[in-house]
Design brief:
eight-stranded parallel beta sheet; 49% helix; 356 residues
Length: 356
């Protein structure tokens, strides 16, 4: 039986209501794991997609971790077998992007770096990577006009897919050249797929002015984190298994490389076996920059408010520490220096004004 955040989090509690009002920053959220159940049913009906169920409640166990699932990356990733069927047109991708951003804003996320995988979004249609990327950029601009949120975008490539796909995605990102595109993410299966194979592509992205984040130290050990740093990662997606090696902890601390930690995802995918054993607090106490994120709100059935509440109630993190982690996210954002400094100042003022 997998971890259920809602057995820890009480959305009627004063603490949860307080956290919901806090302004927040999200640095690690995947578009493909952030969709609305109702929208999936609508799209399936419109495009005749054969689903295992055709109402939101019955569809839930096929796209979301539930009590019937084991806590393992196999069960976690299996949900994408259904989710990858939905990207049938640019109109669909636009709708899903807008809804994902509006949902984040509704949770008082005021700055978000949303990552998306062009190859995954192109599989069910005949559009090029560049067309997909332009669509996501336009949808982000549209969502910013509808909700109080600023969005930057990170294009993801998977390490278990070919170098050719990654190179083509990077080419498309650079050809589009939208200012909202701030980074490249190396994601996918860690075990058996070393990040060093993608080093030339990551180096070219950096030379072109893109920031780099690499999923590491999630389903593989601390050496995966070291390798991600060696190939140029400025942030680490998850990275929690760095705690297993003091030398790796020292490396990320000394280079000020922020970890994009997603506690509920870590528990549901089997990285951590119990909420009170999650290493977030230990890593923070060791001086590692730590941020708190959702990863995949649909799969995990959470919001960022829920994730902060899990950290507070389940891990015992004080509210003052949650504020520090939000400021860490501001400082780790992939913004130009002047915009990053303005974001930090904005959140310092907003968080200081909150009741103790």
């Amino acid at each position: 039986m997998t971890f259920d955040a809602h057995k820890v989090v009480d959305r009627t509690s004063a603490v949860w209501q307080t956290l919901r009002r806090w302004p927040k920053i999200e640095l690690h959220r995947h578009l493909e794991g952030s969709l609305r159940l109702d929208t999936l049913v609508d799209i399936a009906r419109e495009y005749g997609i054969p689903l295992p169920a055709h109402n939101p409640d019955d569809l839930r166990p096929f796209v979301q971790m539930t009590g019937a699932d084991q806590s393992s990356y196999i069960h976690f990733l299996s949900k994408f077998d259904v989710l990858r069927q939905f990207y049938r047109s640019l109109a669909v991708i636009e709708r899903l992007t807008v809804e994902t951003i509006v949902d984040a804003a509704d949770d008082a996320v005021r700055y978000m770096e949303l990552r998306f995988t062009p190859h995954a979004l192109a599989r069910q249609n005949e559009h090029t990577y560049a067309e997909i990327i332009r669509c996501v950029c336009a949808a982000a601009a549209q969502a910013e006009g509808q909700a109080p949120i600023r969005v930057r975008l990170i294009a993801s490539v998977n390490r278990h897919e070919s170098l050719a796909i990654a190179a083509e995605v990077l080419d498309a990102v650079l050809s589009v050249g939208d200012s909202r595109l701030v980074g490249l993410d190396l994601a996918g299966l860690e075990v058996g797929h070393p990040a060093r194979h993608f080093a030339p592509i990551l180096a070219r992205a950096r030379q072109a002015g893109l920031h780099l984040t690499v999923h590491a130290g999630e389903w593989d050990g601390p050496e995966s984190v070291r390798e991600a740093v060696e190939v140029g990662a400025e942030r680490i997606g998850h990275g929690v298994r760095a705690v297993e090696d003091p030398a790796v902890v020292a490396l990320v601390r000394e280079r000020n490389i922020a970890l994009e930690v997603c506690p509920t995802s870590n528990l549901q995918s089997g990285v951590v076996d119990r909420v009170d054993r999650h290493p977030l607090i230990t890593l923070s106490e060791l001086g590692v920059p730590v941020t708190i994120n959702t990863d995949d709100p649909l799969l995990c059935n959470i919001t960022l408010t829920d994730e902060l509440a899990v950290a507070h109630v389940g891990l015992g993190l004080p509210l003052s520490a949650l504020k520090r982690h939000i400021l860490t996210a501001a400082r780790a954002s992939f913004l130009p220096p002047d915009e990053r400094a303005a974001l930090v100042a904005e959140f310092e003022q907003a968080l200081a004004a909150l009741p103790a």
